[in-house]
Amino acid sequence: MNWTKRYPGWTMFGAMVGLLVFLWGLAIPLSAAPAPIGPAAMQFAEGARITVWLTLIAGSVGVVLGVLAGMGKLSKFLPLRWVCDFYVWLIRGTPLLLQILFVWLVIPTVMPASVNLSDFACAAIALSLNIGAYNTECVRAGILAVPHGQIEAARALGLSPLQTFMDVILPQSMRVALPALANNLASLVKDSSLAYAISVVELTMVGYRVQAESYQPIPVFLTIATIYLILTTAFTTLTSALEAKLEVGQKR
Amino acid sequence: MNTSTTPTPIIVARNVDKRFGSFYALRNVSASFTEGQVTAIIGPSGSGKSTFLRTLNRLEKHDGGEIVIDGIELNDNLKHLDAVRREVGMVFQSFNLFSHLTILRNITLAPMRVRKMPKAEAEAKAMGLLERVGLKSQAHKYPVQLSGGQQQRVAIARALAMDPKVLLFDEPTSALDPEMVNEVLTVMRELAHTGITMLVVTHEMGFAREVADRVIFFDEGAILEDTTPQAFFTNPDHERAQAFLAQVRHGF
Question: What letter does residue A168 receive in the DSSP assignment?
Fold first, then answer.
């Protein structure tokens, strides 16, 4: 942890390299394991890659959605506030599994036939919308935590509202919002497992299939639990290093 | 007041009213300020002196009357507001340095964003200003690493980087430890001799007496006295001003 604080840049680099090495090297040690793990090593590795892909896509889109909706909730323009309030209310008030099923089953019926969304894309959309709603509240809290004097100083210097937001409010709000956003990201790694319901072959789905074939749930589930733990460790290392990086100039 | 050059008013306030709910913070305040004039605005707390200062760059909207800065009327027209804010710098009681930026970036931000000054030029200018306030060696530190007095001197440099015609000081030494007050007053004293128009809301009677060309005394949202420091400190017209002076005199 101390090392993370002292060398945040290197820690982030290390976590990313570690994650890549893990995702593409995972099959090698796993294949040496006895049945039922060894023969399914490639499936486990592929499942882990799908899980990470889902997490990265939904995590990134979710941050953008969270910033936009978080700003929208604080807008002076009433209809925009309504739209953002409705979005958060809707997503937080319904189960994620329902949202995933909804996107998967409803979008094909309302979209023209030429648009063909894969199961993976449906899962990514639903997860993005879901984490975006939770991020909205974190970003909003972050924006509200920026002292008003900072905004006054920016405006008094002649910065436009947009410049004030981009140069002063957003970077300072991120310092406050980041721990909560990191929390959501850690949840997302595991929430992505619900994509199994629409037949996306992510890590949990791989585990389910392998144990169904081998009738040996204990080693299989222990293996995927370990893989999840390693993935969340990589992601939280990354986010806490980012936190340390953003903490510059902060009171100790 | 009695400068040898023909005085051109750079700030004209006519019958300015400001209400907070049913409370009148400013009542029918009229005053004009000529270029190069240094005005000390004093009065008991809650008398409207800070509110008046803040209406001059529209950090507070006035509810009645008109304010004209360098020929530009302050109203809801955002173009006017941007133009005025470029001409009017402000120094706050609590410094309000951007906590996520280095000292150097604090000073270069507005010239680069608002005046579109190239980075190298903005930095050269910032270093010059930092030298002027005696803080050149602190350029790459963050605001929290500086003392209050140093932060306030940076805040003055930041305001000066926009080459304002007018500088507003809102109780610039009130948040400082006693031993840091002088370093800020010294910088302000030097500024007063450069011909920049200064309006200083202050409790530093010594500074008002020695540096200001003019003293304005506020009470209950109105200007009670508007005279020379000499006249104000030796023989104020109003009883309220006499009582105020008797109270603050205890200090020295």
Answer: I
3-state class of A200 per DSSP?
A: coil
pLDDT confidence of residue A252? 47
Taking contacts as CB-CB distances below 8 angstroms, the residues of chain B near A150 are 96, 98-99
Extract the tokens encoding A71: 């700003």
Locate the chain B residue with the closest alpha carbon to A154.
Answer: B110
Task: Kindly provide the b/e burial profile for residues A131-164, where b requires at least 16 CB atoms within 10 angstroms of the residue's own CB.
Answer: bbbbbbbbbbebbeebeeebbbbbbbbbbbeebb
Per-residue confidence at B6, pLDDT binned at 50, 70, 90?
Answer: low
Single pTM value for the model: 0.84
Return the residue of B nearest to A159 by Cα. Answer: B114
Instruction: Kindly list the residues from chain A whose CB atom is less than 8 angstroms away from the CB atom of residue B90.
Output: 153, 156
Scanning the structure block, which residue is given the tokens 């409370």? B23
Beta bridge partners of B14: B66
- Cα angle at A227 between A208 and A20, to 5 degrees? 125
For helices A78-92 and A41-73, angle between their N-to-C axes, nearest 10 degrees? 150
Is some CB atom of chain A closer than 8 A to the CB atom of B76? Answer: no
CA nearest A171 in B: which residue?
B100
Contacts for A116-123: CB closer than 8 Å, 24+ residues apart:
A119/A195, A119/A198, A119/A199, A119/A200, A120/A50, A120/A53, A120/A54, A120/A195, A120/A200, A122/A198, A123/A54, A123/A192, A123/A195, A123/A198, A123/A200, A123/A202
Quote the CA–CA distance of B187 and B152 in Å, as a whole number: 10
Note whether B82 contacts A: Cβ–Cβ < 8 A.
yes
**Assembly ipTM:** 0.89
